[in-house]
Amino acid sequence: MSNNQEVKQRIVKGNKLECNICKHDKFWGRTTLMNTPKMTFFKLDWANKSALNYICNNCGHVHWFMNK
Ligand SMILES: [Zn+2]
User: Fold this and answer.
1) Which CA distances in Å does 27 have to 17, 19, 38, 43, 68?
2) Which residues lie closer than 8 Å to 27 by C-beta, 6 or more apart?
3) Residue 49 C-alpha to ligand 1 middle, in angstroms?
4) Which end of the chain is less packed: N or C, by CB atoms within 10 Å?
């Protein structure tokens, strides 16, 4: 079991993550697989990879991190 869904402050590349929209600083996390048929259709080179999402616990804005 991962504790990735815990709501807490997140650090990205040494910087505290702050919501782009509402400036809230607590996020819950999830990992999203990118291998959807649509992604494969466009032959994006990051297809089949997983992306890390941090979702703002205040407004719900999803922040995407593709180089995890
Ligand atoms: Zn927010």
Assistant:
1) 8, 9, 28, 31, 17
2) 7, 8, 9, 10, 17, 19, 54, 55, 56, 57, 63
3) 26
4) N
pLDDT digit string, tens, across residues 34-62: 766 665 556 665 556 788 999 999 999 99
pTM listed for this prediction: 0.74
Q: How far is the CA of 17 from the centre of ligand 1 (A)?
A: 11
Place of tokens 């997983």: 50
Q: Please tell me the distance between residue 40's alpha carbon and the centre of ligand 1 in angstroms.
A: 30
Cβ within 8 Å of residue 34, ≥6 positions away: 44, 46, 47, 48, 49, 50, 51
